Amino acid sequence: MKIAILVVRTLMGALFLCTSVSYFLHLNPEPATTGDFKAFQVGLVASTYLIPLAKTIEFLCGLSFISGKFTTLANIVIFPVIINILLINYFLTPDNLPIAIAVFLGNIFLIYSHWKNYKGLFKMNG
């Protein structure tokens, strides 16, 4: 199980680091978009803060996953970003859905593997 955790954590960390560094350094050209996804992307870009915020979160969580430090926190912080990636791919760009599902399942696996660290979040104080 430890090897699986290390592999999943490292792969997710590398993916988040690559995509965020690529975004900030403009290493890849923007892909051509069409239809509903283009309208959605125009809205995201018009907000001026949302994409840089998501990429910053991806960068910090990628560093966390690669280093193995604060992974419990990184799993929770990156979860809303991953949900958005999954839903955007499901509704707007289904060609990329397998990658989004893999990232989602990787995050769920890491949360499950560190579940003892999350038990306090779900404790009922009565």
UniProtKB/TrEMBL annotation:
User: Which controlled-vocabulary keywords does the entry list?
Assistant: Membrane, Transmembrane, Transmembrane helix
Claim: Transmembrane is one of the keywords in the record: yes
- List where the protein spans the membrane: 7-26, 46-66, 73-91, 97-115
Record carries keyword tRNA-binding: no
Localisation per UniProt entry: Membrane
Task: Give a Gene Ontology cellular component term annotated to this protein.
Answer: membrane
Provide the topology term for how it sits in the membrane. Answer: Multi-pass membrane protein
Q: Name one Pfam family in it.
A: DoxX
Using the UniProt record, give the first listed, main subcellular location: membrane
Q: What is this protein called?
A: DoxX family protein
Annotated organism of origin: Flavobacterium seoulense
